[in-house]
Amino acid sequence: MKRLKPFEYREPNTLGEAIEILIGEGPRALPLAGGTDLLVRMKQGVVAPSLLVNLKRIAGLDRIERSAAGGMTIGPLTPIAAVERSESLRQSYPVLIQAAGLLGSPSIRRLATLGGNVGRASPAADMVPALIALKARIFAEGPAGENEIPIDAFFKGPGSTVLAPAEIITAIFLPDPAPAAGAAYLKLGRREGMDCALVGVAAALSLGRGDRVVEARLAIASCGPVPLRTESAEAVLLAGPLDEDRLREAARATAGNSCPITDMRACSDYRKEMVEVLAYRALRAAWQTARRSR
Ligand SMILES: Cc1cc2nc3c(=O)[nH]c(=O)nc-3n(C[C@H](O)[C@H](O)[C@H](O)COP(=O)(O)OP(=O)(O)OC[C@H]3O[C@@H](n4cnc5c(N)ncnc54)[C@H](O)[C@@H]3O)c2cc1C
């Protein structure tokens, strides 16, 4: 059985204290949220932090609340299971509930947090394509103060983000959805539960007059070094009224934007084909929801 290497462990009560501890220890200290990813990678010897700073005692990091100026704020320590059962999120951002329901298993979802899913920066993260489709913004706090980052500019590479050393995600903000909007997240795994995405596609669009798309966002998981926004597919959707041909063209463009790898789970060509299939289905579902919500 693999064992964890010894490490120091702290449970600060405030964000300021957590940042101070992280600064003091340097890059070998890491924030700990649900631990479903970090502790596994530590056991595997992939990472070996000398100090874990558990964020769970810091008040207010697990809230889901509507902002007075519009939109909703989700604390990074919010468990995926709490996202999944949140009525207010279900009403305004059902695509997030869909993604949450596809992550891991019920027991993983009780521990795993939204901030951990974002902070891990895995190209296969299930919550991230939905957050990109919803135009989420990441709020972080660190030695230089507060920072606000659009989620599609947050990831630098596998396991790497634009966060500075000792910077902690403090909130994930979702702007209000547009009128006549719809979104969907679809995931293909080798089995139904407990599996990372071979491919994941989130699509969001809002309609103006007729079937004219006024805004579109598409994002894909497991198709490149970071979760990718596929802007050329969005351009196809914005170029004219939505119909079956345009849906198919946008799905092809999404696959064209993807650059998946071949690994032991699937080859690149298969993944690309599946991106097109899932993009078409996600777009179709988003279109139907947008029409119904008018
Ligand atoms: C059996 C199993 C199945 C899984 N299935 C899936 C799946 O289907 N889809 C999927 O997307 N993931 C899956 N995962 C991975 C993992 O559960 C998720 O990514 C989860 O959301 C991570 O959240 P966490 O709270 O456990 O993060 P942790 O493990 O605590 O942390 C993950 C990383 O994020 C950093 N971090 C955490 N919080 C913050 C913060 N506030 N600010 C800055 N950095 C932070 C940590 O330092 C660490 O590097 C699975 C894991 C397991 C063990």
Identify the notable features of this structure and list them briefly.
294 residues, alpha+beta, Uridine Diphospho-n-acetylenolpyruvylglucosamine Reductase, domain 2, Uridine Diphospho-n-acetylenolpyruvylglucosamine Reductase, domain 3, Enolase-like, domain 1, 3 domains, 5-stranded antiparallel β-sheet, 4-stranded antiparallel β-sheet, 14 strands, 35% helix, binds flavin-adenine dinucleotide
Show the helix and strand layout:
Blueprint: E1 8-10, H1 15-25, E2 29-32, H2 38-43, E3 51-54, E4 64-66, E5 72-74, H3 80-85, H4 87-92, H5 94-101, H6 106-111, H7 114-119, H8 127-133, E6 137-142, E7 145-150, E8 155-157, E9 160-161, E10 168-174, E11 181-188, E12 199-207, E13 213-221, E14 228-229, H9 231-238, H10 244-257, H11 268-292
Parallel strand pairs: 1-3, 2-3
Antiparallel strand pairs: 4-5, 5-10, 6-7, 6-10, 8-9, 11-12, 12-13, 13-14
Helix pairs in contact: 9-10, 10-11
Bound molecules: flavin-adenine dinucleotide.
The site of flavin-adenine dinucleotide (FAD) has 30 residues, from strand 2, helix 2, helix 6, helix 7 and strand 10.
Shape: globular
Strand content: 15-25%
Question: CA-to-CA gap between the ends?
Answer: 56 Å
- SSE series: EHEHEEEHHHHHHEEEEEEEEEHHH
Mean pLDDT: 96
CATH class division of the largest domain = Alpha Beta
Number of domains: 3
User: What is the CATH-assigned architecture of the largest domain?
Assistant: 2-Layer Sandwich
Radius of gyration: 19 Å
Uncertain residue ranges: none
Which superfamily, in CATH terms, is the homologous superfamily of the largest domain? CO dehydrogenase flavoprotein, C-terminal domain
Strand elements, count: 14
CATH fold field value of the largest domain: Enolase-like, domain 1
Structural class: alpha+beta
Spatial arrangement of strands, main beta sheet = 4-5-10-6-7
Largest sheet: 5 strands, antiparallel
Number of helices: 11
Bound ligands, named by name, code or SMILES: flavin-adenine dinucleotide
Relative helix content: 25-40%
